[in-house]
Structure formats: structure tokens, C-alpha cells
Amino acid sequence: MNKVILIGRLTKDVELRYTQTNNTAVASFSLAVNRKFVKPGEERQADFFNIIAWNKLAENISKYLFKGNQVAISGRLETRSWDDPNGQKHYVTEVIAEEIDFIRSKNKQNNEAILNSPTPINKNDDTSDFICNGDDLPF
Q1: Strands 4-10, 25-34: pairing kind
Q2: Given Cys at both, which of 33, 81, 101, 103 links 70, Cβ 3.0 to 4.6 Å?
Q3: Distance between alpha carbon 87 and the CA centroid of its chain, in Å?
Q4: Residue 105: which pLDDT band, with cuts at 50, 70 and 90?
Q5: Residue-wise pLDDT tens digits, 8-56
Q6: What fold does the segment set 4-131 form as a domain?
């Protein structure tokens, strides 16, 4: 089984791109996750994970998530490799997001803005774009 669940804060704004071959949305960002235990006399340590999201999930998170937001991510680990121009092989392990849930922003003003706007769905599902608050339904 390949399943990852992380709760942490975005270290920078989401970067949204589209693939050249079939114009598929792909979003990437880094997530800082605090370690559970702190050694006496030391500061809390954090691990930094590269997160990738695809399709509608990528488009939605690029609209609603920003640096400092706290999120819960469920997905899978994936490792890929490539050769650089010098023939050196490089490897990277990334979390491929399947669900992303907004927990809170770093400041109260951002929280209120998100509560008063359409909430992005948390599944990588092309059947629906949003779950809306209020009368502005997407269908």
C-alpha cells in the first residue's frame, strides 16, 4: 500500500503550470511538517515535502491556497529520475496529492475570505468543480 497523510503549512504560493502535450494542469508547492517530538534544549524540527497535484485539484488549490495556509494532504509517494545535460542521474521523491483539505490560514483575514468564497473540492475528480456556499451553484 502506498498512502501518505500529511498536515503542514505551505512554504510558498502554489505554482500552476500546464503540460505541453495535452494542456493538463499541474500544481506544485512545498509543505513544511513539524516533527512530533522536540529534543530538550533544541528548537522544533520540520521536514519539507514536495507536493504535486493534477487536473481540477491543481487548478482549485492554485486559486485558494497560499503561503502559510495549513492543509491536510492525502496521497501517494512517487519517485522519478532524469539525466541532466552532463549525464548525471538525478532522483526526486514527491507526494502526489489525491485529496487536500484546508485547515486554516496564517491570518484571520484570509480565513474569512475563504469562508465567504466557494470551497474547492478535496478530491481529484473532474465531475464537479466546486462545493458552493450560498445560491451560486455550479450546475
Answers
A1: antiparallel
A2: 103
A3: 31
A4: low
A5: 999 999 999 999 999 999 999 999 999 988 888 888 899 999 999 999 9
A6: OB fold (Dihydrolipoamide Acetyltransferase, E2P) (2.40.50)
Q: Hey, what's the cell of 124?
A: 481529484
Q: Which amino acid is at 46?
A: A
- Residues 51, 94 contacting (CB under 8 angstroms): yes
C-alpha cell belonging to residue 91: 532522483
> For cell 511538517, what's the residue?
33
Residue ranges per domain, the chain?
A: 4-131
Q: Residue 40 corresponds to which cell in the numbers above? A: 530538550
pTM to 2 decimal places = 0.71
Q: Is the separation of the CB atoms in 5 and 74 below 8 Å?
A: yes
